[in-house]
Amino acid sequence: MARFTFVEHAEPDERFATNAFDESIGKDIAVDVVDEPTTVGTLIAAEVAADRRSVALTVDADVAVEVIAGPTGASVDGEKS
Fold it and tell me: Which burial class, exposed, middle or buried, applies to 59 when counting CB atoms under 10 A from its CB (0-12, 13-18, 19+)?
């Protein structure tokens, strides 16, 4: 199981409502990982940016995670499965 956060952007002429994802917290959502089949994860948190142009989604999912530290480093909660 891995916990990760990714950012989704609104369409250029749209904005997210500040509470747009509240009803989805704790529910299963589809998770697409490059080169992996679509799986299901649990939405843990959703933080809409102040300008409402993006949302940071935190998900728990049973996916293999390989951390490759770059010049600034990287961290992922959870274990590689």
Answer: buried
